[in-house]
Design goal:
Elements lengths: L4 H12 L1 H34 L17 E6 L5 E7 L10 E5 L9 H10 L3 E5 L21 H20 L6 E6 L1 H10 L5 E7 L4 H16 L11 H18 L7 H6 L6 E7 L7 H10 L4 E7 L7 H4 L1 H15 L41
Parallel strand pairs: 3-4, 3-5, 5-6, 6-7, 7-8
Antiparallel strand pairs: 1-2, 2-4
Helix pairs in contact: 2-7, 3-11, 4-5, 6-7
């Protein structure tokens, strides 16, 4: 040590401050070890997000296709998208306009699976293809995922703006309902939070990317983790931090961000109405996701229907008749404009008739409406 003056100085400093050096060395070792472990499991989870498709990833085909008036419009970030208007059976007196937001890997024609009863009831429907789906443009360098990102929010905001302009040009009230499925349901909530034109939403299989990823991370960590402390005896802050690291990785490698649906829902205008639908046997998105969103929604008019026996995106197939009547009744109550009242015609007074007893009104806050199958 005497041959190297600098080494001698350092050695002398270490011997005089050995306690401080030990503490710094230990903390550095623990930090590096924890960081390497976290990076390892973030990489595993990122690969699962990137490579694992959700159920029905090829899109449903159990419906008869409906053709409408094709239009082209632009998303909020100026990407070209394709949509179509479907005219309902209303004889020129439509009840309202519903924008359909399809699920991941589907297209605008899947609206027939869910919206045919609305068309028959007198509603017009505007359905469109998200970017990278159907006949809409693909954004270079971006691959759509099963989680709603800011790109899909730009798409549906463009669709809503196009429909608002169309309604105004045709002299109709600028009032809109949204019908969203799975990823499209979360995107509908994100787009509707600050839009006064959106009066009512039906969201089937909705979820928030952040809370759902935390749930899935716990499942994946239990399967893949070799270090027990990664999935045992963990505080909630651990999973939030791990999710934050995962989102940072996604932002860097997938070129997108995942807005929080539950945070957007908490800021929702209280005047809106929302119907949450979720399959009781959904193994991809747990029922607790819709229950959480229902509990957080500050709106005055909200309902939650848990469909017995239904899997992800299968409620419309499991209970088709009640699904149709439930969705039509919801928009009838919270979107349809009251019919114009004809002026009274002078007639000869008639004998007063006994008025029937009035049926009790149904509460808009019922969590689980009565299922016809259980009657």
């Amino acid at each position: 040590m005497s041959g190297d003056p600098l080494a001698s100085v350092w050695w002398h400093y270490i011997t005089l401050n050995w306690a401080l050096v030990s503490i710094v060395g230990t903390l550095t070792f623990l930090f590096v070890t924890c960081w390497l472990i976290l990076r390892k499991y973030v990489k595993i989870m990122f690969n699962i997000i990137r490579d694992t498709p959700p159920p029905l990833a090829m899109g449903p085909r159990d419906f008869e296709r409906i053709e409408g008036e094709r239009v082209m419009f632009r998303a909020f970030d100026n990407l070209n998208l394709c949509g179509m208007f479907l005219s309902g059976a209303h004889g020129g007196k439509p009840k309202g306009m519903v924008v359909f937001s399809h699920e991941f890997s589907s297209d605008m024609y899947s609206c027939a699976r869910y919206c045919r009863p609305l068309l028959e009831a007198g509603y017009d429907v505007f359905s469109f293809d998200y970017r990278g789906h159907g006949e809409s443009s693909c954004e270079p360098g971006y691959q759509p995922r099963q989680w709603p990102t800011e790109r899909e929010v730009n798409d549906i905001l463009g669709a809503i703006a196009y429909v608002e302009d169309w309604l105004e040009r045709h002299g109709r009230p600028v009032e809109i309902g949204i019908f969203g499925i799975s990823r499209g349901a979360g995107t509908a909530i994100l787009a509707a939070q600050n839009n006064p034109a959106v009066k009512a939403l039906i969201v089937d299989g909705a979820f928030s990317s952040d809370t759902t990823l935390e749930y899935l991370m716990k499942r994946w960590a239990y399967i893949f983790a070799k270090v027990r402390f990664v999935y045992e005896n963990h505080p909630p802050q651990f999973w939030r931090f791990l999710r934050w690291l995962l989102f940072c990785e996604c932002r860097k490698k997938l070129n997108c961000t995942f807005p929080s649906v539950w945070k957007a829902l908490r800021r929702m205008d209280k005047s809106k109405a929302i119907l949450f639908i979720h399959g009781a046997r959904d193994s991809y998105i747990p029922v607790e996701q819709s229950q959480m969103l229902y509990d957080l929604a500050p709106v005055k008019h909200k309902s939650l229907w848990i469909v017995p026996g239904a899997k992800h995106n299968q409620s419309v197939v499991t209970r088709p008749e009640y699904y149709a009547s439930r969705t039509v009744a919801f928009f009838d109550e919270y979107l349809a404009r009251p019919a114009a009242v004809e002026p009274p015609v002078a007639t000869k007074p008639a004998a007063p008739a006994r008025r029937p007893a009035r049926a009790p009104a149904l509460s808009a806050h019922s969590v689980t409406p009565a299922d016809p199958a259980k009657r």
